[in-house]
Design goal:
The chain is α+β, with helices and mostly antiparallel strands. About 50% of the residues lie in helices and about 15% in strands. It has helices at about 5, 55-75, 80-105, 115-130, 135-145, 150-165, 175-190, 215-230, 235-240, 265-270, 305-320, 320-335; strands at about 45-50, 50-55, 200-205, 250-255, 280, 285-295, 335-340. The strands form 2 sheets. A 4-stranded antiparallel β-sheet has the order 4-3-6-5, sandwiched between helices. It has a 3-stranded antiparallel β-sheet with strand order 2-1-7. α2 runs antiparallel to α3, α2 packs across α10 and α4 crosses α6 (about 150-165). The longest helix has 28 residues, at about 80-105.
Length: about 350
């Protein structure tokens, strides 16, 4: 099973930004190092479903955001990193296969969505994922070898699959008010306005090019993490070791907007739970040791405005077992070939 930080679903692909000549804004330096990119096997086939292919590029577009978080989480890229990356790829490939099975059965309906509905979905993604930055979205399209029209067609397929999945699979009891409220509490976490997330955290920042170089600094960061997990005082260790601008404040960064943070750092702060020590987390300049003190999630639509949607979600969840039986039957009759 994945831990909470690898379960976080983040659309889009992180982009490498130029190195900073001075200390970046809070969290902006928290961008993982990417190894030099060699030739990309963008057309390699990783699976076939009823004759339709799933390419390596399609898989890696889905894998990339969570992989970036894993890379930040595991600076040494050791066996634990490789194991979780393999599981991540396998899990996402299975999901793509299920979507392909559904799509091949219902693709005659794919053009039933008006273009303005798809454009609205693309605009929502640009606002929520790319902070409303059209240029950043264009960089993502370029990095993933997609045109805007191809991206729109992806969203059209996504909507078709969502609708098929939400279809009725047997009668169930009418949802109770308590069930609707409980579903809303879960829903608002993943459907909030993430651009309004604000957090307070402690951070010890260890620059790579001080104190003997990257390897020695990584070892120092690992030693600090060990001390913290054994009861060490974060405030004192930050004052003693941190190269960050808030070292004298015990490494505390108060009420920092998520929009000030790099994607991976924002994911680790806001898509996890609890206040465990996280790190060392690698970025291009150094290693971060972080402890979240408070998360203030962005707002979601009020309950009364989405009550009907909550009813549909509760009913859909109750029908999940019927859906899984249907999906199992669909898988058994599909021709599936994995090459990964």
């Amino acid at each position: 099973m994945f831990s909470s930080f690898t379960k976080a679903i983040v659309f889009g692909m992180a982009l490498v930004l130029p190195a900073f000549t001075q200390e970046p804004p809070p969290g902006a330096e928290n961008e993982p190092i990417r190894p030099p990119q060699g030739p990309q096997l963008v057309n390699k086939i990783v699976a076939k479903v009823n004759g339709d292919v799933i390419t390596l590029n399609e898989l890696m577009i889905k894998v990339a955001p969570s992989q970036s978080v894993l890379m930040s989480r595991y600076p040494r890229r050791g066996p634990a990193f490789q194991k979780q990356l393999k599981e991540l790829k396998s899990s996402i490939l299975d999901e793509l296969i299920d979507r392909a099975i559904i799509f091949t059965q219902f693709k005659d309906r794919v053009n039933s969505f008006p273009d303005h509905q798809i454009e609205a979905e693309v605009s929502r993604i640009i606002q929520n994922v790319y902070k409303g930055d059209e240029e950043l979205f264009k960089k993502y399209l370029k990095a993933t070898h997609l045109t805007r029209d191809q991206f729109k067609e992806q969203q059209r397929k996504e909507l078709l699959v969502q609708i098929v999945r939400s279809q009725h699979f047997g009668d169930v009891a009418v949802p109770k008010e308590k069930e609707l409220r409980e579903e809303y509490e879960r829903w608002k976490i993943t459907n909030r306005d993430r651009t309004k997330d604000v957090g307070t955290y402690r951070r010890i920042y260890i620059h790579k090019n001080r104190g003997g170089g990257p390897l020695a600094q990584l070892q120092l960061a690992e030693e600090i993490v060990k001390k913290l997990k054994n009861g060490g005082d974060f405030n004192e260790l930050a004052k003693e070791h941190s190269n960050g601008s808030h070292a004298e404040q015990g490494g505390v960064w108060k009420d920092i907007p998520r929009t000030d943070l790099a994607m991976e750092f924002g994911t680790l702060l806001f898509e996890t739970e609890g206040n465990e020590i996280m790190g060392p987390l690698e970025d291009r300049i150094g290693f971060n040791i972080v402890q979240v003190m408070e998360r203030k999630p962005g707002p979601a639509e009020p309950f009364e405005k989405v009550r009907e949607e909550m009813k549909r979600r509760v009913v859909s969840e109750k029908k999940k077992s019927n859906y899984e039986k249907w999906m199992k039957k669909m898988r058994s009759s599909a021709v599936i070939e994995k090459m990964l």
